[in-house]
Amino acid sequence: MLSRTRCVSRAFSRSLSAFQKGNCPLGRRSLPGVSLCQGPGYPDSRKIVINNSSVFSVRFFRTTAVCKDDVITVKTPAFAESVTEGDVRWEKAVGDTVAEDEVVCEIETDKTSVQVPSPANGVIEALLVPDGGKVEGGTPLFTLRKTGAAPAKAKPAEAPAAAVPKAEPATSAVPPPPAASIPTQMPPMPSPSQPLTSKPVSAVKPAAAPPVAEPGAGKGLRSEHREKMNRMRQRIAQRLKEAQNTCAMLTTFNEIDMSNIQEMRARHKDAFLKKHNLKLGFMSAFVKASAFALQEQPVVNAVIDDATKEVVYRDYIDISVAVATPRGLVVPVIRNVEAMNYADIERTISELGEKARKNELAIEDMDGGTFTISNGGVFGSLFGTPIINPPQSAILGMHGIFDRPVAVGGKVEVRPMMYVALTYDHRLIDGREAVTFLRKIKAAVEDPRVLLLDI
């Protein structure tokens, strides 16, 4: 890389040469007998005398730096208040050319992975944090030497046309094989074949038995391998263990007849899709029913502040929806559910689910939450007890829909039934309130008119 002084010196020398040859439109040499000031001048121009003989009018102007590219330092983006640090996983290396907004690294936090893009086109000069290193918000990550537009991809070189083989003269052809010599003697006569003779069966030796396989042969290898727990899995394990150590968890159960909600979905799903461009699922019904029950039982939406020994009642309802991803369980939040209708809930669930599958959830998407719904039914779950997502006080577990015989009006009928479970912190929520809360959800799902009538 040339120094700035050498670059300026060379540029000035070439400029003077251009002035002397008259090839520069910004420099004019005065003609003999004509005053330089008589001709049209340029703003910011000066007179320069070279070798005491030639006088030039030179216009000076500013240009962008061409000898030294801008080098910028990219820092870790700010985290949410609940996140203090993260682990860096590099996607690029030193010397790689990156385009603007191209991902350079990912920072894996307790809740999600944050992608760090390149702020401009350029070349990565240095990585300031090792792969797997821990960083906080505002920590310098890497340095980038900015360049112009992103380099265009080189067109693949066309394969050279195969050379047409030239016709060789007849003399260069492969010579024919020499003619076989004529034999002068008769070939030897083969011995006469021997007649087949019969043998007694006892004389025939039995074939050797196949070797006996050794015990354990043919089985798979009894090997094992280890993988380091990613930061999200470590945090999930830590939070769940904290919940068990802190909360007095208790679970109550109920079952829901899904006949009416299935009939409503089958009747209106086409019109719902046509109007809102969304599929009508069962999750929106449970989210809306949970918001209704949380308003009726506000203690389930509350939390204990262990530091001040106070109960914090929330006047808003933010429901976390558990979503399974290859990296672990994430719980994006649907905010202010009490003010949403079915279409709003389905749209938000669809958007959050798509972001979760693409690993594009931001920390703000999962921060907060006053109540959680976990749907194990999508995996065929029949029954289970969920664990509270701290610092919340309760979680609803949905399970699979299966046909079961139930008593209806004194008769046995087969109905599509779902088990539901509510795990709650018994330090704050009594059994009466938990059972009442779950019965409110059951009533709202089995007969959605309950929500319309507010009963």
TrEMBL record:
Region of interest (Disordered), residue spans: 151-228
Pathway participation: Amino-acid degradation; L-lysine degradation via saccharopine pathway; glutaryl-CoA from L-lysine: step 6/6
Pfam family, one: 2-oxoacid_dh
Catalytic activity: N(6)-[(R)-dihydrolipoyl]-L-lysyl-[protein] + succinyl-CoA = N(6)-[(R)-S(8)-succinyldihydrolipoyl]-L-lysyl-[protein] + CoA
First-listed, main subcellular location of the protein, grouped into a coarse class: mitochondrion
Ranges of residues in domain Lipoyl-binding: 71-145
Stretch forming the signal peptide: none
GO MF terms held by the record: dihydrolipoyllysine-residue succinyltransferase activity
Low complexity: compositionally biased ranges: 151-173
Compartment(s): Mitochondrion matrix; Nucleus
GO biological process terms, semicolon-separated: 2-oxoglutarate decarboxylation to succinyl-CoA; L-lysine catabolic process to acetyl-CoA via saccharopine
Highest taxon in the source lineage: Eukaryota
UniProt cofactor(s): (R)-lipoate
Gene3D superfamilies per the UniProt record, alphabetical: 2.40.50.100, Chloramphenicol acetyltransferase-like domain (3.30.559.10)
Any single GO CC term annotated in Swiss-Prot or TrEMBL for this entry: cytosol
Enzyme Commission number, as recorded: 2.3.1.61
Keywords on record: Acyltransferase, Lipoyl, Mitochondrion, Nucleus, Transferase, Transit peptide, Tricarboxylic acid cycle
Comp. bias intervals (Pro residues): 174-193
Functional note: Dihydrolipoamide succinyltransferase (E2) component of the 2-oxoglutarate dehydrogenase complex. The 2-oxoglutarate dehydrogenase complex catalyzes the overall conversion of 2-oxoglutarate to succinyl-CoA and CO(2). The 2-oxoglutarate dehydrogenase complex is mainly active in the mitochondrion. A fraction of the 2-oxoglutarate dehydrogenase complex also localizes in the nucleus and is required for lysine succinylation of histones: associates with KAT2A on chromatin and provides succinyl-CoA to histone succinyltransferase KAT2A.
Binding partners and assembly: The 2-oxoglutarate dehydrogenase complex is composed of OGDH (2-oxoglutarate dehydrogenase; E1), DLST (dihydrolipoamide succinyltransferase; E2), DLD (dihydrolipoamide dehydrogenase; E3) and the assembly factor KGD4. It contains multiple copies of the three enzymatic components (E1, E2 and E3). In the nucleus, the 2-oxoglutarate dehydrogenase complex associates with KAT2A. Interacts with ABHD11; this interaction maintains the functional lipoylation of the 2-oxoglutarate dehydrogenase complex.
Family: Belongs to the 2-oxoacid dehydrogenase family.
NCBIfam families listed in its UniProt record: sucB
Protein name (database record): Dihydrolipoyllysine-residue succinyltransferase component of 2-oxoglutarate dehydrogenase complex, mitochondrial
Organism the protein comes from: Canis lupus dingo
